[in-house]
Amino acid sequence: AAVARYMLAWIRLQSGDVDGALRELSDPLSDPSFSCGDPSPFERALVSLFVRAGKDSSTARLESFAPVKGGTCVGKVLLSALWEAEEKRGEAARAAEVRDIASRRFPSDANAAALEMETVESLLRGGREREALDRTLTLRGKYGPGSAWAQSQPAAVREKVTKELTGMIRNLGGRKFDEGIRTGERSAFSSSAALMGEYFQLKGDDTSDEDGELRLKWAIALLGSGDRENGVLLLEELVREQRGDATGERAAVLYAETMIAGYERKETSIQDAEDAALLLLEEHPSEKSVSLALRASSAFLLAREYESARSTAEEVERNRSASPAQAAQARLIQAEAAIFEGGGVAAREKAALALADTGGAGEAGARAKDLYLLSSLKEVEGKEAAGDSLGAAAMLEEVSVRFAGAPEVPIYLLRAMRLYQQGKDEEGVIRSGLRFRKDFPRREEAVEVAGVVGPLLEERKEFARAGELYEAVAESFPKGEAAPRFLFHAARLAEEHGPSGAAERRFTVYRAKYANPRWKWAYATLSLGLAGRQRGETKSSIRLMEEGLRKADAGVEEEAPEEFAELTGKARIAIGENWAEQFRKTRLVVPLEKSLAIKDRFFRQALGAFEKVESEAPLEVALQASLLSGDLLVEYGKAIQASQRPKGLKGSDREGYEEALRDRERSFYERSLDRYTGALDRLEDEEGPADLAVPIRKRLETAQALLEETMTAKEGKSP
């Protein structure tokens, strides 16, 4: 009957009736006499035919097959043969489904756990990873310690299964971890974290040193999966263990990184981030830990937590593992924090050290420079507020020297000059001001510099330097409001104190560029004329002086100083002396009337010039004009006395002619006496210098003697 059933099953299978074949095989395979441990050839043939039919049968049909459903040993043999056949032909997923049936139908079997694990492997080989992972996560509950299955098995079986299960879960968790590291996918980290959690649940307290690294990976996986809370808790556990191995260091590094990154994202308190960074720096000093501490202090600085930023950076600077570049960065952070905390001095010291470290090169050097400048300016403000203007000025000047190429240097120098001026440090004012003028000649503030430094140079009797400064600024800004004033003043300084030629050069430029104020233009013109006369350039100098005098006579501004009136007087005197020179060159010859007319014309021109000076010029110049007038009158009298006499005059005619000459000569002496006397009276009335009276009196005595001679000669001729 069994053989007949077999033949019918074979025929039905050949015709494609899989269900019919399984129905025919159900009875012989349900026979209690079937030998599961050592089947006969016929029994093996039955199993083989079942496998052929089972390949094309649904899992539901297989699970309802009588030997399988009944949970007999034949059912296990059949399912085992079927999944092996499926694996041989590469149907891993189908093999996993068959094992699944076996696990469900024989849950208390000692091999149930092994079947499940093999099912997982089959699913993985079949590309059904998600399903394999989900199944793996159920294995601890089914077969782990304390499960119903474990309690029904001998201790040896339990231990063996636990060991195999932990090994499989660990390997699978490690594989997903590596995938997460490689791809960065959160799902891979999530699977790895779940598997590692199962692993440590299986291990319980039975952990080894090797598990330390796996716990670190578990923490990384938790963080990578987005479970920051549990990841941080696990890292904290590892850090608290104070492991002295590489795993402990990596855990501390990762914990610090996590805390710092959390602070940057506003997920962690500043205290936690600072503690993590400092703990890492203390327990595991290295370039990496220094780098993380610097990152933390930079984050604190950015968040305006200046005290934490500074204290963390101080620890970095003291750490022996810090490289020179890291130490420099730490000093920069301290400097910046100190600036905002109001510690300008400390900030400047740290920035100076960082500058020395970097040499001012690169990004760090540029930042050190900026911080040094900022801290210096902060300290300058503090000194100003405290009334230490000289200290503030010195600091600004030092900064301008240290960073001579900085675009703010002209501002620093100008501010330093003003502060030196405020503190009455003339040397500092001159030094900073002249450096500003030298280095930044085209900046408009040079006008202010000239206005401040120039007068100080004059006070120090450095007239040449002052004049050069005024002239240079006027030349640089010819259209500026101060340019004509500076140029004119520079010319006046050179006029009074030298150097030779500078006054004429400056007056020439002034005369060419600036017509107003009128008195200054006239002054420049007159000064040039007088200078030319001193060189003997008579014609050109006379033209210049006449041009200047015409401008003066046409009217000038009321603010024209006394010096202008004095120079005008000197110019008129010069022109008068020119006429006087012509007067002297004209000899009185017969016919006397003709030569007298010529000489008299020159005389009147000269005397008119002198008289105008007497009426308009200041006292000393007016007195000089009075002396020249008197002298001219005396000269005229002497010229008459020495004039040529007509030939052939005899007797009374000659006496009458001589008498007429003496009368004319006497009139000039009398007029000269009036001039000299008037000069003395004016000198006395205006309380002028007493020494000016000496030459006047001498001339007065001379004129008086000449007058008396004419009187004596007249009396000697009387009957």
Largest beta sheet, briefly? none
What is the strand content? under 5%
Round the Cα radius of gyration to an integer and report it: 61 Å
Overall, the morphology is rod-shaped
**Count of runs of 4 or more consecutive helical residues:** 35
Uncertain stretches: none
Provide the structure class.
Answer: mainly alpha
What's the pLDDT, averaged over the residues? 84
Total E-strand runs: 0
Distance between the termini: 213 Å
Helical amount among residues, as a percent range? over 70%
What does this structure look like?
The longest helix has 35 residues, at 651-685. This protein has helices at residues 2-14, 18-29, 41-54, 59-63, 66-69, 73-88, 92-105, 112-125, 129-143, 148-151, 155-183, 186-203, 210-225, 228-240, 246-264, 270-283, 287-302, 306-318, 324-341, 344-358, 362-385, 389-402, 409-422, 426-439, 446-459, 463-476, 483-497, 502-513, 518-534, 538-554, 562-585, 592-616, 619-641, 651-685, 693-717. The protein is mostly helical and 719 residues long. The chain is rod-shaped and about 210 Å long. The chain has a domain at 562-717.
